[in-house]
Amino acid sequence: AQKVTQAQTEISVVEKEDVTLDCVYETRDTTYYLFWYKQPPSGELVFLIRRNSFDEQNEISGRYSWNFQKSTSSFNFTITASQVVDSAVYFCALSEVGYNFNKFYFGSGTKLNVKP
Amino acid sequence: NAGVTQTPKFQVLKTGQSMTLQCAQDMNHEYMSWYRQDPGMGLRLIHYSVGAGITDQGEVPNGYNVSRSTTEDFPLRLLSAAPSQTSVYFCASSYGGPTYGYTFGSGTRLTVV
Predict the structure, then answer these.
(1) Closest partner residue to A35 among B33, B45, B101, by Cβ?
(2) In terms of CA atoms, which chain B residue is nearest residue A45?
(3) What is the distance in angstroms between the Cα of A88 and the nearest Cα belonging to chain B?
(4) Which chain A residue's Cα is nearest to B32?
(5) Per-residue pLDDT tens for A60-88?
(6) Could you give the CA distance from residue B24 to residue B93 in angstroms, rounded to a whole number?
(7) pLDDT in tens, B19-72
């Protein structure tokens, strides 16, 4: 079974629209960390956020916000007023503290296309 | 501060050839990993290391070897390249382990013909 599921393969929006990227994870650990990375067309992987399992507060950073809900095992990412520069592939990832503590599990990614 | 440096950026190999992808980091990170990225599959862990002299297998280790003789370097060796190894390869390092997140290199695009 996949540890991290990003069901949206590709999303297209028009500039200034809001968009939410979904991430659902699976773990038996009570302590774990969730991440989002951005991969722009240039190919590098850029760290966006790290969140531990004990902190369910939503986080906002400029136009970006993250909604963490343990009850539904989800860690969704919203971009408000999207811009063309937001076009990228976004990856959600999970790291567990426990037997698999050396592993880092990525979802398959969601490609976001923001059109002008 | 260079971060994680991967060389080469692009490589074309013929089936059966061997080569080494280089990875170096200057952040004194203990944890280093190699991932491959294939369309629709995210990034999959090939091998990882928790410190000099210590390596272990990830999800997809077959066909690859690693060693970690220094903290800074973590080369990935393809023993006998196959078309199935055509992929983008990322090296990553972390100060305290995966729970702290990784810093990634810029990737190596490998094509095996």
Answers:
(1) B101
(2) B104
(3) 13
(4) A102
(5) 899 999 999 999 999 999 999 999 999 99
(6) 9
(7) 999 999 999 999 999 999 998 788 999 999 999 999 999 889 999 999 999 999
